[in-house]
Design a protein that fits this description.
homodimer, about 425 residues, alpha/beta, Molybdenum Cofactor Biosythetic Enzyme, Chain A, Alpha-Beta Plaits, Maf protein, 3 domains, 17 strands
């Protein structure tokens, strides 16, 4: 049952119901409000329809102290969230001159003139508190209804996120005044959900201070502990430590992170701390390894170069793979993978070279080389390790799994050679 | 108001409300059921809680003829969707021997033994039709309640998607027996939403056979037309043609696709048709251009090689950028970008070389080179074009926008030199 410290979210947009776009807001809001001790107890997705929005707001308002609506504040005719909220609360829409002045200025700075459609964006339900939008023309707003507050934010994430941080979260913190909700994440790679449950046995079943979620990711499973209300800090510490130790025993380096960093971030931080460097030679993964590594700010300290060698000629010329190797074993082989890893390492003079080659599908398979067949390698001064795996899934899944697998192989090497 | 041909979706999972994962199912289901003429009128997200699930199913069932629930069928204690549905419909859970035999076989094939937790997965509300899951241990099921059907599918997308296609969509097609819902997508790049509305003027406002959605994407805006019920095919054809023509006039090559292909797919198909090839030299985008291009199946026909040259040394050695150029103008400059584009083209002997260099942030900015500053280039036999842009947004947004911008620059060149 929803508690007084729970909030609800209403995602507005025909595009969400028609499958033209996935939602990003619920994950953002759910994650961020936890730090305030607040939970989202339920979320709703509704189309761009005044009556549907108004009906939903009216229905949910008696059940929560805060409702956050996202989307539908734009200038086009399908943007009707402000009208829906006004109708739900029996309020008229009022024109706000300072907002209109600001919108005109926003356009003028870009050498343009706002239209009547933009003028609609300067209207708010009577009594609203208006939230300035530094990145777009749609301000947000909040309206109080009894002891509840309705927050309304524009849909584009680059606008919504800073506005939520500046205006909504501080108000929620004052409204609820709760300690943060403790959440602990333990990240694993290369094991399935029920296999992991089995390996952990009682260690996960016996948690009393937390609830446990098992979240399959592209390459493994995250075990997430969320504090139960009223649990003691000492009990939480003890249980989290016990799970941490058990994961290490049962999974070894397949348990790679207590925290939120992705494998590329963990590997990057290790390299930075060791003063070592990395380069990548990719075929199958087509740039995914380089992209994951360079997504981490500061990657330029340890990532020297990547080569995406799709054509055999590129493997020869950019990486120094021998024509005989390609001829005798093929591009998808342990031998080619070995030479790719050595080749990128030598050419970029990095401490480590990582390589991937394989068959992403849907075409390219042969009787001996099925879709998903992947060779991943790590080369260092005087050595190389290559691993063969057949990944399940479609082209996109195979590419992502192989990239994570290759980064894990390097992680495993780093941990074994500290 | 929901119509008889509308369905509703219930997404189950604490992780969705806590922001530990974004939902992918609603977008998939919304998109796929359109082909059956069916719309999702509303969606709900609820936690792993028997009473909350049961309450929601009971509340929504009188309002729709089909309800699809996703998630919460796994073996762990937090998976309670089957219990919630059984409670909502006042049905007991019955053990299904053939499913249990199948689960044991699934484990045996992997050298493991199922646990009591897996035995729960062989229980279904009485009278369920059971949907086999070829990729996991959680079967789905459907239960009829009056003239409505409740479908329940497991959460992992690689399991849910084939099961929805095999079991759910054919049953929805029979239940509703409607013609497909026509949807037309027009993709643009490099213009904002209200700018686009302005440029199109009456052309978009005057559509009667369709509703229009404006969907900002990472790099532009998609204009999506969805047929109104009962609209004539001839009227739809005429309106879609008119918008297509108007977009071409107003936006030129910034209107790049009538359909669903991303810019990398459009560019790839053009290159394949022309028998030309591409290579990419990336700094700022860190492998994103290569990854976008190689995501398109068949990319090996035209994508020869990519180099991610993060370090100056890599720019010199792998791409042939001159030390003097780097010294005099810096790595983030028109001159370096030019040499990168020429360098990758020459070294991989491709028809075109694409290059990116810039400042992704959060660090690395200087007074003259702010975060977001990007140079993108396209080189061909005897020529090069470089463009300078300052992209807004965080590291991830800048990287993605720059990669799309670079691919568009090539697209623009290809269209001008047919």
């Amino acid at each position: 049952m929803p508690a007084r410290h729970d909030i609800e979210v209403i995602l507005v947009g025909d595009e969400l119901l028609r499958g033209q776009r996935g939602d990003e807001h619920l994950a953002f809001l759910g994650r961020e409000v936890r730090a305030l001790g607040v939970r989202v107890s339920r979320a709703h997705t509704v189309g761009d329809d005044v009556a549907a929005i108004a009906g939903l707001v009216r229905e949910r308002l008696p059940r929560t102290r805060a409702l956050i609506l996202t989307g539908g504040l734009g200038p086009t005719a399908d943007d009707v969230t402000r009208e829906g909220v006004a109708e739900a609360l029996d309020l008229g829409l009022e024109f706000d001159e300072p907002t209109w002045a600001w919108i005109r200025e926003f356009f003028a700075a870009r050498g343009r003139t706002p239209t009547d459609a933009n003028r609609r964006q300067a209207h708010f339900p009577a009594g609203s508190e208006i939230f300035a939008n530094a990145r777009g023309t749609a301000p947000g707003f909040a309206v109080t209804a009894g002891d509840a507050v309705v927050f309304v934010l524009p849909g584009p994430p680059p606008e919504l996120q800073p506005m939520a941080r500046e205006f909504v979260f501080p108000r929620l913190a004052r409204l609820f005044d709760l300690p943060p909700l403790r959440v602990e994440t333990f990240r694993t790679i290369g094991v399935g959900e029920s296999q992991l449950v089995e390996m952990l046995g009682d260690a996960a079943a016996g948690l009393g201070a937390f609830t446990v979620s098992w979240l399959p990711t592209v390459a493994g499973v995250d075990v997430v502990l969320t504090a139960r209300r009223g649990a003691e800090a000492a009990a939480m510490d003890a249980e989290a430590e016990r799970l941490h130790a058990r994961l290490g025993e049962a999974l070894g380096t397949r348990y790679f992170e207590r925290g939120e960093r992705p494998i590329a971030g963990v590997v990057g931080d290790l390299l930075a701390a060791r003063g070592e460097t990395l380069s990548a030679a990719e075929s199958l993964t087509g740039g995914t390894v380089a992209r994951l590594v360079t997504a981490h700010p500061g990657a330029s300290a340890y990532f020297l170069a990547g080569v995406v060698a799709y054509a055999d000629e590129a493997k020869r010329e950019l990486l120094g793979v021998r024509a005989e190797t390609l001829g005798q074993y093929g591009a998808v082989s342990e031998e080619t993978c070995t030479e790719m890893a050595h080749g990128i390492r030598r050419r970029s003079r990095s401490t480590y070279g990582v390589a991937t080659t394989g068959i992403a599908g849907p075409t390219g398979a042969t009787p001996h080389k099925p879709v998903g067949l992947t060779f991943m390698g790590v080369a260092w001064e005087g050595g190389v390790q290559v691993k063969r795996v057949i990944y399940p899934g479609d082209r996109s899944a195979v590419r992502d799994r192989a990239a994570h697998g290759a980064l894990w192989l390097l992680y495993d090497h780093l941990r074994r050679h500290a």
